[in-house]
Amino acid sequence: MTALTTPRHLGDAGLIDETSVDAFAEVASRYAISITPTIAALIDAGNPDDPIARQYLPSAAELIRLPEERDDPIGDGPHSPVPGVVHRYADRVLLKAVHVCPVYCRFCFRREMVGPAGEGTMGSEELSRAVAYIAGHTEIWEVIVTGGDPLILSPRRLGELMAALGTIEHVKVVRFHSRVPVTDPERITGALLEALRSSGKTVYVALHANHPRELTDDARAAVDRLIASGVVMVSQSVLLRGVNDDADVLAALMRGFVEMRVKPYYLHHPDLAPGTSHFRLSIEEGRTIVSALRSKVSGLCMPHYMLDIPGGHGKVPLTESPVSEAADGCYAIEDRLGRMHAYSDE
What we know:
The chain is α/β, with parallel strands linked by helices. The chain has helices at residues 7-12, 18-23, 25-30, 37-42, 51-56, 124-135, 155-166, 180-183, 190-196, 217-228, 247-259, 283-296, and strands at residues 85-89, 92-96, 142-146, 173-178, 202-208, 232-238, 263-268, 304-308, 315-317, 323-327, 330-334, 340-344. Helix 7 (155-166) packs parallel to helix 9 and helix 11 (247-259) packs across helix 12 (283-296).
C-alpha cells in the first residue's frame, strides 16, 4: 500500500466514513494529507477518540481559524538571512532542507509551508547559499536539519548535504528532526545511515512521537539501527488535547523513549498554527499535567516543557521563572534577552 494522500484514499481504506470524503475536500485543499501504511495500520477507525487518528486524519475543525493564529507562529521569517536558513540563536541554525513529509500532522506549526504545494526541496543553488552562510559565521556550532522531514531525502541527497557540512570546521554537531523512524521506519536503511555518518560530524536525531502506540516494534528496530550506526537520539513531543494530555499516557511515552535509548528532550506547548485550536491546552493545564508527570517518572524520563514565544522570540521553559501569570488566561513571559512578552490562552 502506498501513502494515502486524499480523502478518497482515506475512505477507500476505511479510515473515514463515506459521508466524510466530500466533507474533507475543503480541508484537503487547504492543508496537505499523507498517511503511510505504518500509521494507517495503527489507526483504530472505530474509535472516535483514537489518539493516532486524531494526529493524522483531517478534521473539519481545521477550517476554524482564530484571530491569534499565525501562518508563521514561531517567527522563522524574520530570522532567515538566506532561503532555507533560520538563525535565531547565535551558536546554531535551522537548515530547512525539504518541505515535504511522509505524513502530515494535523497540528503542524509549519503547515502553511509544507506539502506538495509548499516550498519544496532545497535546490543545489539554495543549498550552496545556505552552506556559504553557515561557513561565513564561525559562531555556528550546530546545524539543525529540519523541514519538512529531512530523513525523507534520498541517501544521495543526504550524503551531498552532509558532505557540504563536513567541510565547515566550526560546525561540530548536525541534528536531524524527524518522524521517519516512527512513521516510515523502512526508510532507515544502510545507505541512509552511511549518508548520515559520512561527514565525520557528531550526528543527533530528534525523534518526534506523541503517543506510546507510535513506538512499534518496527520503530524500535529503526531506532536500534540509528544508534548502532553512532547516531545519538533524543525525543521531542507536542502536548496535544485528546492525544497525550494525561500524565499516565505521557509517562508511558517517556519511559518508552528511554527504553529505546532515546533521551526525552522537549515537550512542546502547542503553537498558534492556523486551524489547530482543537489541539491546544492552556498553560495552566499543561503545567498541571507536567507536574503530575514529574511525580510518576524518574528524572531520566522528564522532558523540558517548552513554549516557543510567538513572533520569533525563542523558547522558554514553562515550568520555570520566565513565565508568570498576569491575569486570567494571560501570562508575562521573559525571553532569553530579558524582553517581556504577553501571551494569552484565550
